[in-house]
Amino acid sequence: MNLYEGMFLLDNQVVRADWKTAKSLVVDLIKKNGGEVVTIRRWDERRLAYPIRGRRRGTYYLTYFKAAPNAIATTRREFELDERVLRYLMLRAETVPDAELELSKAELAEGFTVPPPPADDEPLVVEEPVVAEETAPEAAPDAPDAIEDVPAEASTEV
Amino acid sequence: MVEYSNKPSRAPAPPIASRNCDDPRIDYKETTYLQKFVTPQAQMLSRKRTGFCTQCQRQLKEAIKRARHMALMPFVS
User: What is the pLDDT of chain B when averaged over all its residues?
Assistant: First the structure.
């Protein structure tokens, strides 16, 4: 059994329904393949650097788990097939950081709540072209007034 | 006659990274730190610009690529 660090990017739709089922989604898939979850916590909810499957935002879960080396390939396939998982990353880890133990324990406590994801992750829509022509004529009549003032000032200086 | 160039001499930008290796901040989760080692277009900086040693630069490369895969950092912006 090796120790692994896993990060999973989940669809906000799942997290909005219930953040605990979203968490158990990851735990179940690891356990199904003979893994043993040491810590798991909601790492962050943030805007994605680029849209994935039309999602602009997503929730990251960070986990440390023990698994047999040959179980990783099957675990990967499970996550690959699950449509609720947008991205995953599994790396070998030497130790579990102390901060992770505390934070994941704090998340298990009663009454711990997670702010619901903002409603900014609707599938991408084609932006309508902005009508710029309406603003252009308004600015034009002001321009001649400004020009008239300049020669008057110039004559006083001479 | 000696021809002089009109180009101003350009001093190389000083390296960004500190000298100590084994920096725990070189990690794909530390995106604010990694942002220092990419251009405004999100391209990685060369070793010359970052000032990292071979091993650290390699770790940095891995970290940035992992962060990109997880959509924590852009491929291009």
Answer: 85
CA distance A13 to chain B (A): 17
What Cα–Cα distance (Å) separates residue B55 from each residue in A108, B20, B21, B52? 38, 12, 9, 8
Number of H helices and E strands in chain B, helices first, is: 3, 0
Which pair of tokens denotes residue B25? 């901040």
Q: Are A87 and B69 in contact (CB under 8 A)?
A: yes
Give me the CATH number covering residue A26. 3.30.70.60
**Cβ separation A43–B29 shorter than 8 A:** yes
pLDDT tens-place string over residues A68-88? 999 999 999 989 998 889 999
CA-nearest residue to A86 within chain B is B70
- Least Cα distance to B66 among A118, A62, A84, A55 occurs for A62
- Answer for the pair B37, B64: CB distance below 8 angstroms, yes or no: yes
Most A CBs within 10 A among B59, B69, B72, hence the mutation to make, goes to B72
**CB half-sphere exposure, A115, CA atoms < 13 A:** 7
CATH superfamily of B18-77: Ribosomal protein S18 (4.10.640.10)
Q: How many residues does chain A have?
A: 158
